[in-house]
Design a protein that fits this description.
With 204 residues, this protein is an all-beta fold. Helix content is 0%, strand content 57%.
């Protein structure tokens, strides 16, 4: 059995993934009942995979990648080393194989204010991380690289009421500005998931 090839069906080596993914692997020409398969990331704990015959006999596990943010590659998270480990029923290692994957960063959408716009008075700053539940991240706004201001949950986005009447420290002639407004999405543990910056002006 130790010479059986360990084939990883999914994810593919070097790929960028997101959300919940079905990790799939198998020992070729070995009945599923004769071995156990585990997956582990970055040398962490072994996670048992279950038997699955859909599309051919293999071992499978549903893995939520949304929290995989402890390594940052700039435009995405990673690289993460995912090891697949096959053991016989007595726990003896038969075969193992590792691949590298990356996890896509979420898209940050700014609903309001719009980039390049001129605003006045109190404005509702609105933004969200796409395809993420509000409870799974925090959103902040800051102006000109200043302090981070926490935004609150509002139905399907994060929102903050911002009084622009005091934004007069930069003069563009016909309006105050330009002001650089950044939105920063973070995980509950403080990892920056995504940032996006727009420019606004404030009417005189």
């Amino acid at each position: 059995m130790s010479t059986a090839a360990l084939n990883i069906w999914w994810p593919t080596d070097g790929s960028t993934q997101s959300g919940t993914q079905p990790f799939k692997a198998r020992l070729e020409n070995i009945p599923l009942t004769c071995y156990q398969m585990f997956w582990a990331v970055d040398g962490g704990q072994n996670n048992l995979m279950s038997d699955n015959s859909t599309g051919g006999d293999h071992k499978e596990a549903s893995v939520d990648l949304s929290g995989w943010n402890w390594r940052d590659a700039g435009d995405r998270f990673g690289p993460f080393s995912v090891n697949f480990i096959a053991k016989d029923l007595s726990g003896t290692l038969i075969q193992q194989k590792a691949i590298t994957i990356y996890v896509a960063k979420p898209t940050l959408s700014i609903w309001w204010p719009t980039d390049g716009s001129t605003q006045s008075g109190a404005q509702p700053f609105k933004a969200r991380l796409e395809n993420m539940s509000l409870s799974s991240y925090l959103m902040y706004w800051s102006v000109d690289g200043g302090q981070l201001n926490l935004m609150t949950d509002n139905v399907d986005h994060k929102e903050a009421s911002v009084d622009l009447s005091g934004w007069t420290w930069r003069d563009a002639g016909t309006a105050w500005g330009p002001f650089s407004v950044s939105f920063i999405g973070k995980s509950p543990s403080g990892v920056t998931l995504q940032t996006k910056t727009i420019t606004i002006y404030v009417s005189k």
